[in-house]
Specification:
about 280 residues; alpha+beta; Deoxyribonuclease I, Chain A; 14 strands; about 20% helix; exonuclease activity; exonuclease; endonuclease
């Protein structure tokens, strides 16, 4: 069957879901320096990754969205990546956080919540931004389209992405490789990258080798994880049901002082993964 084109909501408009890489220009060094100053770059910022279980535990009700809004308003993270967000929940997040300066993007994944609304990943970012794409990842079993949603800062050489890798017999290795390839394409254009998501893989899983920097054991990629010692053991505190580390925040090498903390929440079977990084 020919894949169906999925649409993605951003702001008040609709963008096509299967979008190729844009030929966007990288800011000049002087432009980048001025943009960094305007954006408060050079400071330590916080980041949040959470699978809110918006359908499986809440059927589209806004309960988990209310929890996220409260936490975001209090902690003011720079980038938030979320998984399993129903359109009703996304609408609530977007409206409630607009006055706090957040731009919101919802990348649909080809399935629906119990309330009939669309379902997918979310990126919230506190800077002027635009969607680069919502790319489909390999999934021969096709129980749910898996995608990578990426948003780029308008005047700042940074891309923030959210993804959700399959949990079952689907092609996890192929999905992670596709994510790594896309990240590498951004980096080749001079962009720094923040990548958050529920990868449904433990840190030592060989499927994650293309993501972890080569300084990690068996690493073959270029990114560093927020809740593991830089170039140390691939590890981290459990983020799902108190048993497994499945959620990650990865950064490109320009980010330093990485720290991570997992905070439990009653609205999801995943914990909040909070990251700290400086650029």
């Amino acid at each position: 069957m020919r894949p169906r084109m999925i649409s993605m909501m951003i702001g008040a408009g609709i963008l096509a879901g299967a979008v190729g890489v844009e030929a966007f220009a990288v800011p000049t060094p002087d432009h980048e320096r001025k943009a960094r100053v305007a954006a408060g770059a050079g400071k330590t910022k916080r980041y949040l990754q959470l699978n809110i279980a918006g359908n499986s535990m809440h059927g589209g009700k806004v309960t988990p969205a209310k929890s996220v809004v409260a936490r975001v308003k209090k902690e003011q993270p720079y980038v938030v990546t979320l998984n399993e967000v129903c359109a009703t929940q996304f609408a609530y997040l977007k409206k409630q956080l607009a006055d706090d300066g957040y731009r919101a993007a919802h990348g649909l994944t080809g399935t629906h919540c119990k309330d009939g609304s669309a379902f997918g990943n979310v990126v919230l970012i506190r800077i002027a931004s635009s969607v680069v794409g919502n790319w489909k990842l390999p999934n021969p079993v096709n129980e749910e389209h898996r995608r990578l949603l990426c948003v780029k800062a308008t005047n700042y050489a940074m891309v923030a992405c959210a993804t959700h890798i399959s949990y079952g017999k689907e092609d996890k290795a192929g999905q992670v490789r596709a994510v790594a390839d896309r990240v590498n394409a951004f980096r080749a254009k001079g962009y720094r990258v923040i990548l958050g998501g529920d990868f449904n893989l433990q840190p030592s899983s060989p499927e994650l080798d293309p993501i972890y920097d080569t300084c990690y054991p068996s690493g073959g990629g270029a990114l560093f994880e927020t809740d593991a010692a830089r170039c140390g053991e691939r590890a981290g505190d459990p983020t799902a049901k108190g048993k497994w580390k499945l959620d990650y925040i990865f950064y490109s090498p320009e980010y330093t002082g990485l720290k991570g903390e997992v905070v439990s929440t009653e609205v999801s079977d995943h914990g909040e993964l909070w990251g700290t990084a400086t650029y």
